[in-house]
């Protein structure tokens, strides 16, 4: 079998980190323990993607719908973000640029400050772009882009008939980045759940029957192989 690196280089990957709650339940642990374990997996897989030469990785960390969860769980997830962003994630040595997708205005002021600093400090890193979607929804993202373009129309600097798909892409949080080649969803679910709706137009969906905290480097390699298998079968002429 060929080394996965050969097949991974240049790919843009989106991951819906799902199954933390079920993982905890299976062990009789609180859901928050599942998120803590999921955060460890996040780090392992982000580093692995970097090592494989993947230029764009986007992880779905908190959706606009996740606010409906009990306050205790939401607070625990936010606390985990803070901890990992502050000291749990070594982007410097690994040359990783971090970007946050989503509406951060609703987040705790301290967390927002940390997010802004991380984006600024890592802006010149060239090894991999890691997008972390927090308070993110694909539909709100499209609405935001539409509003920005509508504003230009209202100001008379843009004609409606001149609006193109490229312009819409340039007004997404992922402006300038490669669209995902595949979206990976562990835990057996087969939904997009409002993740990268605009960007995923041509993405393959790869779902795997592993809960996110159990997801390993080898599972990532398997997912990449699955993607390559599909694109070999259906791609080109
Ligand atoms: C979905 O699993 C997971 C979340 C809503 C939270 C994801 C958060 C992390 C992995 C924590 C840290 C992330 C970073 C970037 C440091 P679920 O709770 O919906 O699982 P279930 O479907 O089994 O209930």
Order of helices and strands: HEHHEHEHEHHEEH
Structural class: alpha/beta
* Sequence stretches where pLDDT stays below 50 over 5 or more residues: none
Shape: globular
Query: Could you report the average pLDDT, rounded to the nearest whole number?
Result: 94
Can you summarize the main beta sheet? Answer: 6 strands, parallel
Query: What kind of assembly state do the chains in view correspond to?
Result: single chain
Please report the distance between the alpha carbons of the first and last residues: 25 Å
Number of strands: 6
What is the strand content?
Answer: 15-25%
Task: Going across the biggest sheet, name each strand in turn.
Answer: 3-4-2-1-5-6
Number of helices: 8
Attached small molecules? farnesyl diphosphate
The Cα radius of gyration reads: 18 Å
Helix content: 40-55%
Short description:
The longest helix is centred in the N-terminal third of the chain and has 21 residues, at 31-51. The protein has helices at residues 4-8, 20-26, 31-51, 71-88, 109-122, 138-154, 165-170, 217-234, and strands spanning 12-16, 56-63, 96-101, 128-136, 182-186, 204-208. The chain is globular.
Topology readout:
Blueprint: H1 4-8, E1 12-16, H2 20-26, H3 31-51, E2 56-63, H4 71-88, E3 96-101, H5 109-122, E4 128-136, H6 138-154, H7 165-170, E5 182-186, E6 204-208, H8 217-234
Parallel strand pairs: 1-2, 1-5, 2-4, 3-4, 5-6
Helix pairs in contact: 2-3, 3-4, 4-5
Can you walk through the features of this model?
By secondary structure, the protein is α/β, with parallel strands linked by helices. The protein contains eight helices and six strands, in the order H-E-H-H-E-H-E-H-E-H-H-E-E-H. Strands 3-4-2-1-5-6 form a six-stranded parallel sheet, with helices on both faces. Helix 4 packs parallel to helix 5. The longest helix has 21 residues. The two termini are 25 Å apart. It binds farnesyl diphosphate. The site of farnesyl diphosphate (FPP) has 18 residues, from helix 2, helix 3, strand 2 and helix 4.
């Amino acid at each position: 079998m060929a080394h996965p690196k050969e097949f991974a280089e240049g790919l843009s990957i989106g991951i819906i980190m799902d199954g933390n709650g079920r993982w905890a339940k299976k062990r009789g642990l609180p859901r928050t323990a599942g998120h803590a374990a999921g955060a460890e997996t996040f780090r392992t897989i982000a580093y692995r993607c970097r090592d494989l030469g993947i230029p764009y990785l986007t992880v779905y960390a908190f959706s606009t719908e996740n606010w409906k969860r009990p306050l205790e769980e939401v607070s625990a997830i936010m606390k985990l973000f803070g901890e990992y962003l502050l000291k749990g994630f070594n982007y410097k040595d690994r040359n990783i640029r971090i970007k946050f997708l989503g509406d951060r205005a609703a987040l705790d002021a301290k967390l927002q400050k940390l997010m802004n600093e991380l984006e600024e400090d890592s802006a010149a890193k060239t090894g991999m772009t890691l997008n972390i979607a927090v308070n993110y929804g694909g539909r709100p993202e499209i609405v935001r882009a539409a509003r920005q373009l509508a504003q230009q129309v209202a100001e008379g600097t843009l004609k409606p008939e001149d609006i193109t798909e490229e312009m819409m892409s340039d007004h997404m949080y992922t402006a300038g980045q490669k669209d995902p080649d595949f979206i990976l969803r562990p835990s057996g679910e087969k939904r997009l759940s409002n993740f990268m709706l605009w960007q995923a137009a041509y993405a393959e969906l790869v779902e795997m029957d592993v809960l996110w905290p159990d997801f390993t480097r080898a599972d990532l390699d398997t997912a990449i192989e699955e993607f390559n298998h599909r694109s070999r079968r259906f791609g080109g002429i």
